[in-house]
Amino acid sequence: LHSGEWQLAEGKLRALQAGSETEGQRLVPRAYVAHRYYSTDDFDAEVAVTLRDVRDRYGVGDDVQRFAELAMRIKDLQVSAFAIPGVGMRLGWRYHTRDGAEVAGNSARDLELLVEDEMPTPPDGTPFRLRLQLRRAKDAVSVIASVNGHTFARKVLPGLQGQVGKIAVGCRNYECAFDDLVVTGKVAERPARRAESAAD
Q: What's the pTM value of the predicted model, to 2 decimals?
């Protein structure tokens, strides 16, 4: 785990992260919740989430970034389901294909193109179930993100097949509780580290 206060008690992971001061360090408001690695070809994670606003308690402004996150992540790979208060539920992605091309985006563009309907974030203090599913689809991966059983984003990501990541939860400028995490999928070997170039 990284930035913020994280506590595991009675099977529930509680997180509190407020503010942007890092004393020169990189802000990484998330925790990896397993040592296992999973294939992007077959991954399904679902967790119960409860959010509580901290702006009044910690003097956090209204214009700061705030979210809870369920993700498959590793260096150079991220597929995340976000609950963003005042904005709605979102899917975000960033990864490199095998030929080195970076692919990045989020479901806000799909909303602009009327591909998906807007889904608001559940009210403060109301538990909800956040789910992220990845499945191989030929030379791509089909991703579905849902809340309480209702899909809010669906995306086919070309070139993501056969890659590997870990499960993580994130909490930014919120008090978050994560419970009843269920993960299924194809367990994979830890990816080999990329060789450093002569310029590094």
A: 0.89
